[in-house]
Amino acid sequence: MPAHVSGRDGRASAKRVLAEELSRLRTVSGRSLAALSDLTTYDRAYLHKLETGKSSGTPEALAALDAVYGTGRHLQDLWELVQHDLHPDKYKRFMERERQATVRYQYAFSTLPGLLQTEGYMRELVQAHRPHTEEARENVVTARLARQAMVRGNDPQHYRVIMDESVLRRATKDKRVWHEQMAALCDAAAAPNIQLHVLPFSAGLHGLLGESLTLLWLQSGRFVAYLEGNRTADLIEAPDQVEQLHLTYDLLRDSALPPAESAQFLKDLMEGSTTCEQPDRPHP
Asked: In angstroms, what is the C-alpha Rg of the chain?
């Protein structure tokens, strides 16, 4: 039976609804877990976790199950509701805004941006910040990996990211994981929709010290901002405040290394011989 998990107000959680729907669909179809595994390429143990609510899965897994059951986007839509349940209200609103965005500007001060993290880096970070149940950690990792499709999938957002040098100097405990992460950053720097800048220590003091900032350009033609501190976060939509943060970001970009120099900076930090070549492209 699926896990009977309820929300704070006593209502059935989205995760419970998804689990019960997965179990129901398989029962109605008359398929065994083994047969379903053959059709989706996901192993039986994984599929069992989905049906018992021990895992909410990934958008790719739910898309495969939608295809098997002929349910359109039904299961994928339920999965998105589960992600909404996992995050605080302000972050939920931010997630809604970011799905509407065509351009994303970001400054990362303390850790690598989630959209550029490898799974290994992500797991070590989640373990450090969220030392509770394995299920909870898996949910966070799954949600973060799914978000990366916004800058890596079909019709990706234009993404300009400034990374403080301190982010790149704080490696993971596992050297192999760090090397994979640096190689992934090199790949990201070569993507046509990504502009990657490093803000060196030599840039000195600036207006975003101690904070990380994301600016989203929405299809409606306006910017919204998401400002994060050590233990706080705020979605800012007031035009005058967003304009001020946008100006602060532009000044920071002017102090950062341009993309080609940033790519070389990453290459110099890497262990081993992986290269990080910057393609020729116009500077927006």
From this structure: 21
Q: Where are the alpha helices (DSSP H) in 87-205?
A: 89-100, 119-129, 134-147, 149-152, 165-169, 175-189
CATH number at residue 76: 1.10.260.40
44 and 104 assigned to the same domain: no
3-state SS assignment for residue 3:
coil
pLDDT digits (tens, 9 = 90+) for 66-122: 999 999 999 988 887 886 666 556 667 777 788 889 999 999 998 999 999 999 999
SS3 of residue 59 by DSSP: helix
pTM for the full predicted model: 0.66
H/E stretch holding 131:
none
For the chain, the domain total comes to 2
DSSP assignment letter at 12: B
Beta pairing partners, 275: none
Residue 215 DSSP label: E
Contact yes or no for 266/185 (Cβ under 8 A): yes
Task: Tell whether 60 and 95 lie within a shared domain.
Answer: no
Continuous segment of H or E residues that includes residue 244: helix 239-255
Query: Which tens digits make up the pLDDT trace of 41-69?
Result: 999 999 999 999 888 888 788 999 999 99
∠ CA 57-71-145 to the nearest 5 degrees?
A: 25
How far apart (Å, rounded) are the C-alpha atoms in residues 154 and 185? 19
What is the spatial distance between Cα 97 and Cα 234, in angstroms, rounded to a whole number? 13
Q: Which residues contact 224 (CB under 8 A, 6 or more apart)?
A: 97, 215, 216, 218, 235, 236, 237, 242
Q: Which domain holds residue 27?
A: 14-85
Token pair recorded at residue 176: 């192999």
Residues 6+ apart with CB under 8 A from 279: 190, 192
